[in-house]
Design brief:
It contains 7 helices and no strands. By secondary structure, the chain is mainly alpha-helical. The protein is globular and about 55 Å long.
Length: 151
C-alpha cells in the first residue's frame, strides 16, 4: 500500500509468530502478565511501551498469546486505559513539537508544510475515532490547547 505523504510503497516488517500458544520459555501465568501490565500503566507507560518492556524483560513476545486478551483490553478492564488513543496522542505530540520549533524558526517553510500534513492526519484520525466511539463525538483538536493535552 502506498503512503499518504511519501513516495514509498514498502511493506518491510518483522512477522509475528504463527502459533497462538505461548512459547515454552514463558513461565509467567496470565494473571502475572495482567498484573505487570497494570503496574506499568500506573507508572505512566503507554500500551506499546508496556508490550516492549514485557518482551524485553520477561520474554513475553505477544501478550495476547499468554493472556488471551490484548494489552489495551486489559487496561480497559482495570480502568487504566488512556483517554486518547495512542496513535492520535503521538500525532498530537508531534504537532506540538513542530509548533514549538516554528515559534523559534518562523521562516522554516518545510516545517510549516509538515505541520499542515500532521494536523490533517490528526483530523482524519479523529474523524475515524469519533465514528468508532473511541473518543467523544464532541472532541476537537485545538492547536492552542494541545500542549496542555500532552502534559
Amino acid at each position: 500500500m502506498g503512503r499518504m505523504y511519501t513516495p514509498g510503497k514498502g511493506i518491510s516488517r518483522s512477522s509475528r509468530p504463527f502459533r497462538r500458544t505461548p512459547p515454552s520459555w514463558v513461565k509467567m501465568t496470565p494473571k502475572d502478565v495482567a498484573e505487570h501490565v497494570c503496574k506499568y500503566a500506573r507508572k505512566g507507560l503507554r500500551p506499546s511501551e508496556i508490550g516492549v518492556l514485557l518482551r524485553d524483560q520477561y520474554g513475553v513476545g505477544v501478550v495476547s498469546n499468554v493472556t488471551g486478551t490484548k494489552v489495551l483490553r486489559i487496561l480497559r478492564a482495570n480502568g487504566l486505559a488512556p483517554s486518547v488513543p495512542e496513535d492520535l496522542y503521538m500525532l498530537i505530540k508531534k504537532a506540538v513539537a513542530i509548533r514549538k520549533h516554528l515559534e523559534k524558526f518562523r521562516k522554516d517553510k518545510d516545517s510549516k508544510y509538515r505541520l499542515i500534513l500532521t494536523e490533517s492526519r490528526i483530523h482524519r484520525l479523529a474523524r475515524y475515532y469519533k465514528t468508532s466511539g473511541a473518543i467523544a463525538p464532541n472532541w476537537k483538536f485545538d492547536s492552542s490547547s494541545a500542549s496542555a493535552m500532552i502534559a
